[in-house]
Specification:
heterodimer; A: 937 residues; mainly beta; Jelly Rolls; Neuraminidase; Immunoglobulin-like; 5 domains; eight-stranded antiparallel β-sheet; six-stranded antiparallel β-sheet; 55 strands; B: 207 residues
Chain lengths: 937, 207
């Protein structure tokens, strides 16, 4: 018997004799690093997590308290160096910032992080969040958080939080809609043979004249009486030289534009129809040269101009500096220019509009500090949680005000744009708020309500099936909706869409769909656009309901918190069969409730449901306002088939379609990223971005998981860093597992073939033999403008801008195409596209340097002198050079492979390939400001 | 949506390369004020808020709007553009004739005392033959309007006209120090001046 066993026996004996008491349950709970629910990209050393990177790291625990109490949180850590940014502790949404004090001689230390109120019963998420986008040369070593309560045994770690398995999806039911709403009639006012028109601001001037600004800085007028379904209307240029205008409004005869860094009034002083004066109405905030500093939208209310401003992006990975007052809703007096900040904490609020009761609505885009997209009902002096380093914003303070409606990323929004309230002429949709999306596309519909003074509501999928990605809107007095689009051009799903202008009319056709949702003390009431079939709607099983919260952190995006299926205790249909009350006993404030209505729910008229999803944001549950709960009638209709099916792999497919399909094919073709066909289990040659070392590995589940969580850590040969967004920050642990499982199943050829038919990518594997008649270079004078414009679309579709620039615009991974076309035309140009390794310019050859220290540097040689070689390891940041002392080089090799993949044209038709050539040969004209007219070439 | 926006902008910029065609536009660019061949309101060099004006064939005047002063005068290379554009930022290209990267600004001299002024940019106009910029200069209760006119054509290189309105009695408005050194200030009658002492137009020519 060893010593420990002897002690145990003695202790048992003594306890049994009542000599000593059992140890009292602890008041303290350790949250060990080993118990975090996601490891992220960092390294482990036994039970110590060594954190070197912020972005993608998810360090979190769920814990539970039996009873509410105050707890103090401390961290056990070691750090050899001070950090230039603070760690964030997010405790059930309450934030504390920790400036990491260095610990001498790598000793372990404890830092107090603050006290928090611990809710009872509910799993509480605690996140330790390193500074986003920052990589440190030496790790912060972390062993555990210590949560100190006051009640013995009150706190416990939750390790088995189950996420729901979602039902199979179809358009409008768990997946994005694929068609236009049946009650909408649309015509495009910009044809395929027209120049692109990127609409950035829109307003009505009088009843029948539409004015709109474009990204190029022009202001156009359109006489709506000239709009017809048979020919394209003329546009009249009425002003120019605006600087990135993103908002336009008219008040009486006065015209206001929000530009890059000022609010401007356009004035025609002499009444000659030309705006000769651009009055600076306001610029009472700092500006920098950050490309992402915009002013969005323009709304007039009571002689005040309102717009929003975005934060910068350039320094978020360095020190997270923001120019003061960025990310605000701004109010400017249109008479004297007096400027006030209405609200702060916004990120990319690319849409402002008037909501019900002339309230201000703003949309914001998911990213740092935004775990999902938002529709915000603007409150005076509210703070919406995007944070920066001080001094930044006077309203940067906890707690943050929640949005009126959360818009889950990839499910109902991705880049929401201007909200607009529908007029009476839109029948059942009057008072509803429509908004567009510059990535997700289509129109989404939100319905707001006030619950005990707090505005909240639901968002519904409304319509897809448009050519343009809508950015700005204007309504005529008759209720015609003019929608201006702005093309993105990099998303496979939207590749055939272009910028431009669309007229949308509501036809009044009755469509069966959920119309509105209203919160009650005990659940959610759903209103339908027409009566349900008699006896239907009563079965709680016909509603699949989940709920979750969001927790904002300084890292990109955020997963659903406490994502779980919710019990539907009962479903009660109203006497007119237009409403169903879902009794939801687990509904709590601060969470999103997602209701998925079964596709098989019938209407009285026999019409099928147009869409069955809705997301309701529960900010406030009213007291004493219960929904009506009744027993189902005896004639309760039973379904002929299950309400929902749960096919294996379906969840993974939906995740693939929502987050991956735009860049990864299923049929072997190469898009922006590697194909997923036969990816799982294959051998991959990868380069470790931090060390530059290349090696081969097997794409097992661990690798796939790692690639989702930290896309830049191991780069597949031929692919640059920073192309893939950090979707790992959006997906939950279970979702990542489902996606990985789906990818693994794609190694089954038959499964992959079936899946690929759902998302076809490759049209044909073209070779030079298919283009035997490619002729000489097309001259700009003889080129067919329509062919050139088709070629431009093909250029976008082939994703050329991902790597190439045009006259200095675009990525710099490959040569500037204007320069390339000077050297190669016709057959030679096509061959260089189809066989990229044919001839590689030295500037774009990848070199590998093995240094005496054993370190490997891979990159492009940008400069060389007698003593050193300057290497760009990432051409997306070509000015960040690694300088290699020549005396340290042990070996040097030049790759014969081109970084440009073959097969990029395989997603195009033969005609599109030829049009692409014409586009390249006939232009693209230099974008540089020249002495000659910019339209002369 | 940062990466999304970045990509969006790249896609947007591509389209700038495409020739404008198709539906009719009743007024051409050259007939409207603020033609970018003459006036560029994008950021210039290191200045987020600036404006560049072409005077004559090849001389450009770049303004630092928050300081209400000229930042740079340069001559474009023969047959080439004087501005190189990258997104919303333009770079001056050519031979520098005058440059002021200092923080010096306008001052008010009264009774032997010199006081700095708060500056607010008010806007600009393109009118027949000239381009005009306006600022508000403030000290305590004194509010002045500074106007600057740039003739679109000029006989001598880089010519400007300035005028201050509502100048307080017994006061003089002093140009920023680099402007005092780099420009000749004259009254409308051609008399050399060192500061603005009345509400008349003054002429500035580069030295």
């Amino acid at each position: 018997m060893n010593r420990q066993r002897i002690i145990c026996c003695l202790a048992s004996l003594l306890m049994g004799c009542g000599v000593c008491q059992a140890a009292e349950p602890s008041r303290t709970l350790d949250l060990p690093a080993k118990a975090i629910f996601s490891k992220g990209p960092n390294q482990w050393n036994d039970d110590v997590l060594e954190i070197t990177r912020g972005r993608g790291a998810i360090i979190g625990w769920y814990l539970r308290a039996d009873q509410e109490e105050e707890v103090a949180v401390a961290v056990e850590y070691s750090s050899p160096q001070p950090l230039n940014q603070a760690y964030q502790l997010s405790f059930d949404g309450q934030d504390r910032f920790w400036d990491v004090e260095p610990t001498p001689d790598e000793e372990w230390s404890q830092a107090e992080l603050g006290t928090f109120r611990m809710r009872a019963g509910l799993p509480i998420l605690v996140l330790l969040v390193p500074p986003s986008g920052t990589t440190y040369p030496q790790p912060v070593k972390f062993r555990k958080l210590i949560v100190q309560g006051t009640t013995p045994g009150n706190l416990s770690l939750v390790t088995n939080l189950e996420e729901p398995t979602v039902p199979d999806a179809s358009p409008g039911f768990g997946r994005k809609l694929s068609k236009r709403h049946p009650a909408l009639d649309a015509i495009d006012l910009r044809g395929e043979d027209s120049s692109p028109m990127r609409v950035t601001g829109m307003t009505m001037r009088g009843p029948r004249e539409l004015w709109f600004t474009t990204w190029e800085g022009d202001l156009f007028s359109l006489d709506l009486n000239a709009v017809s379904e048979h020919e394209l209307p003329p546009f009249r240029l009425i002003a120019q030289g605006l600087s990135e205008p993103m908002g336009l409004t008219i008040s009486g005869e006065r015209v206001f534009v929000t530009e890059k860094n000022q609010a401007t009034e356009l004035i025609d002083e002499d009444g000659d129809g030309k705006f000769e004066t651009y009055r600076c109405l306001s610029h009472d905030w700092e500006s920098t040269l950050d490309y992402h500093e915009y002013l969005f939208g323009a709304v007039i209310r009571d002689s005040k101009l309102y717009f929003s401003s975005s934060v910068g992006m350039a320094r978020r990975g360095k020190d997270n500096y923001q120019a003061p007052l960025r990310g605000s809703v701004v109010e400017v007096d249109i008479d004297n220019g007096d400027t006030e900040i209405v609200a702060g904490g916004l990120r990319t609020p690319d849409g402002i509009g008037l909501g019900p009761g002339d309230s201000l609505l703003v949309t914001d885009n998911q990213g740092e500090w935004l775990p999902a997209n938002k529709l915000i009902h603007v409150q005076q002096d509210a703070f919406y949680q995007f944070r920066s380093v001080p001094p930044w914003h006077p309203l940067d303070r906890p707690p943050a005000t929640p949005p009126a409606v959360w818009l889950p990323q990839g499910e109902i929004a991705a880049s929401p744009t201007q909200p607009i309230t529908l007029p009476e002429s839109w029948g059942p949709f009057a008072g509803h708020v429509l908004f567009g999306d510059a990535t997700f596309g289509g129109l989404q519909r939100a319905v707001l309500e006030e619950s005990e003074g707090v505005v909240q509501g639901a968002v519904f999928p409304f319509s897809q099936g448009f050519q343009h990605l809508f950015h700005r809107f204007a309504l005529t007095q008759e209720g015609e909706l003019y929608a201006g689009g702005i093309a993105r051009g990099n998303d496979w799903d939207f590749i055939d869409r272009v910028s431009g202008l669309t007229r949308i009319r509501y036809t009044g056709q009755e469509v069966f769909e959920p119309l509105a949702a209203r919160v009650r003390s005990n659940g959610l009431e759903i209103e339908f656009s027409m009566p349900l079939a008699e006896g239907s709607g009563w079965d709680p099983e016909s509603y699949f309901v989940t709920q979750w919260g969001y927790q904002a952190t300084q890292t990109y995006g955020g997963a659903k918190v406490r994502y779980r299926q919710t019990e539907v205790a009962s479903a009660t249909v109203s006497s007119d069969r237009r409403k169903v009350f879902l009794e939801l006993p687990e509904m709590i404030e601060g969470e999103v409730v997602h209701v998925r209505i079964s596709e098989s729910l019938p209407s009285e008229s026999g019409q099928p449901l147009w869409a069955g999803d809705l997301w309701y944001t529960v900010n406030r549950i009213p007291t004493g306002k219960p929904g009506d709960v009744q027993e189902p009638p005896p004639k309760n209709r039973l379904p002929s088939k299950p309400y929902f099916t749960f096919s294996p792999g379906n969840a993974g497919r939906v995740l693939y379609q929502n987050y991956c399909a735009s860049c990864h094919s299923l049929d072997g073709s190469r898009l922006v990223g590697p194909t997923f066909l036969n990816l799982a289990g294959s051998k991959r040659k990868v380069r470790e971005s931090e060390t530059g070392k290349s090696f081969e590995l097997q794409a097992d589940s661990e690798y796939l998981r790692h690639s989702i969580q930290d896309p830049n850590a191991l780069l597949v040969e031929g692919y640059p860093a920073n192309l893939m967004p950090p979707v790992g920050g959006i997906l939950t642990e279970k979702q990542i597992n489902e996606l990985v499982g789906y990818l693994e199943k794609l190694s089954d050829p038959e499964f992959a073939r079936i899946e690929a038919t759902r998302t076809p990518a490759v049209l044909h594997s073209w070779t030079m033999d298919d283009f035997s008649k490619v002729g000489e270079r097309v001259s700009p004078e003889t080129a067919d403008p329509a062919a050139i414009l088709r070629g431009r679309q093909a250029f976008m579709k082939a994703q050329c801008l991902q790597c190439h620039s045009v006259s200095g615009y675009g990525a710099e991974l490959g040569p500037d195409l204007v320069e390339s076309v000077k050297k190669f035309q016709g057959e030679k140009l096509l061959r260089h596209i189809m066989e990229p390794a044919l001839e590689i310019h030295p500037k774009y050859q990848t070199s590998l340097f093995l240094l005496e220290s054993g370190k490997v540097v891979v990159g492009n040689v940008m400069k060389e002198d007698d003593n050193a070689i300057h290497v760009a390891t990432n051409l997306l940041t070509p000015h960040d050079l690694t300088i290699i002392d020549k005396s340290e080089i042990e070996d040097q090799q030049v790759s014969k492979n081109s970084a440009m993949p073959e097969g990029l044209l395989n997603i195009l038709s033969q005609e599109e390939v030829l049009d692409l050539l014409r586009f390249l040969e006939a232009g693209p004209a230099p974008i540089v400001q020249t002495e000659a007219s910019p339209t002369a070439k | 949506m940062d990466d999304t926006i970045k990509r969006l902008i790249l896609a947007i910029l591509l389209g700038v390369a495409c020739e404008s065609s198709g539906q009719a536009e009743e007024v051409s660019n050259h007939d409207l004020p603020f033609d970018r061949e003459r006036i560029n309101r994008y950021s210039l060099d290191h200045l987020p808020r600036s404006i560049s004006i072409r005077q004559g064939a090849d001389v450009w005047l770049g303004y630092d709007l928050p300081r209400a002063t000229i930042y740079k005068v340069w001559r474009a290379p023969d047959g080439e553009a004087g501005l190189k554009q990258s997104g919303f930022v333009t770079r001056s290209v050519g031979k520098t004739l005058f440059e002021d990267k200092s923080d010096e600004s306008w001052e008010l001299r009264r009774g032997g005392e010199t006081t700095p002024l708060s500056i607010r940019y008010l806007g600009c106009s393109e009118r027949e033959g000239h381009f005009e910029l306006r600022w508000e200069l403030t000290h305590d209760a004194d509010v002045m309007t500074l106007r600057e006119r740039v003739p679109m054509t000029a006989e001598s290189t880089a010519t400007r006209e300035i005028r201050v309105e509502s100048l307080p009695t017994d006061s003089r408005l002093l140009l920023p120090l680099p402007a005092q050194k780099g420009w000749n200030l004259m009254t409308a009658e051609g008399t050399a001046a060192s500061s603005l002492t009345d509400n008349e137009w003054y002429l500035l020519t580069s030295r």
